[in-house]
Write a structure and sequence with these properties.
Blueprint: H1 2-25, E1 51-53, E2 58-64, E3 69-75, E4 80-88, E5 99-106, E6 112-113, E7 121-124, E8 130-136, E9 154-164, E10 173-183, H2 214-217, H3 257-281, H4 306-311
Parallel strand pairs: 1-3
Antiparallel strand pairs: 2-10, 3-9, 4-8, 4-10, 5-6, 5-7, 5-9
């Protein structure tokens, strides 16, 4: 009995010490999949260097006050996209006045798109800690007239900038949080009855040139399935179309519309020269064919003293 009572506290203490270890050793349930990709931590400074955002991906960027920040995202037909921006301003003690921020949207052709809702421009007082902006894009259409500026499927750019800020506050550190939400789908695309030939997606690495022969070596995405059975590393290139020949193709090498314009211009210049010569050579028109009759003229009077001189001549 005495030995049991004495060993009871030691056994109780060992159980209490082993309990946390057992809990820690038990496997914890794995977290569920994330709602989206990890947020990007960079932003471009021009359209060409805009940071792309995947669907549902946000941006959390440390920037300097006064910089232009660019992001790019894709929008499909029928969607209505909204850009939400929250800017954490520098400490109020370091600022010298109010700041005005602006968010703008551009399509793949870099045409500025209007916002249908949201504070696109916002002004934060000197004591404010942050400023929130948003811009709701018009519904992306499946097709539009060439003269219209309606949003079409493709790449869209987001530009965040400071519209008005004291000169002393330029360069202060700020934190920018941006995310894009979309609603709707292809079933809501308007108008019906048309289709866009290709999305308005700008070329990647604009201005870069491909290596010689790379275009002919790369298989076309629209190539027939027969090309897939060719030997590895080879690609079938379509034969060039034969030029259409005419009866005058052998007479003139490189016959084109410039020949017609040149010949027509020479003929018009010759006609203009003849017409101008006619006007300057006979300014009063043509002369009559026959000579005009000459009226009779009276004899000229003799000068005074002419007769007296004649009598002494003989």
């Amino acid at each position: 009995m005495m030995r049991t009572i004495t060993a009871l506290p030691a056994a109780l203490g060992a159980v209490l010490l082993a309990a946390p270890a057992g809990v820690a050793a038990s496997p914890s349930p794995a977290p569920s999949g994330s709602a989206g990709a990890a947020p990007v931590t960079s932003a471009g400074t021009t359209f060409l260097t805009a940071t792309p955002l995947a669907a549902g991906q946000a941006a959390n960027v440390s920037a300097s006050t006064g910089d232009y920040l660019y992001w790019a995202f894709a929008a499909a037909e029928g969607q209505t996209d909204t850009v939400h921006v929250t800017v954490t301003l520098p400490p109020a003690a370091d600022r010298h006045g109010a700041q005005s921020w602006s968010v703008e949207l551009f399509d793949g052709l870099r045409r500025r798109q209007s916002c249908t809702a949201g504070p696109q421009n916002a002004t934060a007082a000197k004591a404010a800690a942050s400023v929130a902006l948003s811009c709701t894009l018009r519904q992306v259409r499946s097709w539009a007239e060439p003269w219209s500026g309606d949003p079409l499927p493709g790449t869209y750019y987001v530009r965040l900038s400071v519209a008005d800020v004291p000169q002393q506050d330029l360069g202060l550190a700020a934190q920018v949080q941006l995310h894009v939400t979309a609603k709707g789908g292809a079933d809501d695309a308007q108008p019906e009855g048309g289709s866009l030939k290709a999305p308005l997606v700008p070329p990647v690495n604009a201005g870069a040139t491909a290596a010689p022969g790379a275009a002919s070596a790369a298989p076309s995405p629209a190539a027939p399935s027969a090309s897939a059975s060719a030997a590895p590393g080879t690609a079938k290139v379509a034969a060039p179309a034969e030029e259409e020949s005419h009866w005058y193709s052998d007479l003139f090498s490189g016959w084109n519309s410039r020949w017609f314009w040149t010949i027509a211009g020479g003929v018009l210049a010759a006609l203009a020269g003849v017409w101008g010569f006619t006007l300057t050579r006979h300014p009063r028109g043509r002369r009559p064919a026959g000579g005009a009759p000459v009226p009779p003229q009276a004899p000229a009077p003799q000068a005074q003293g002419q007769g007296q001189y004649d009598q002494y001549r003989g």
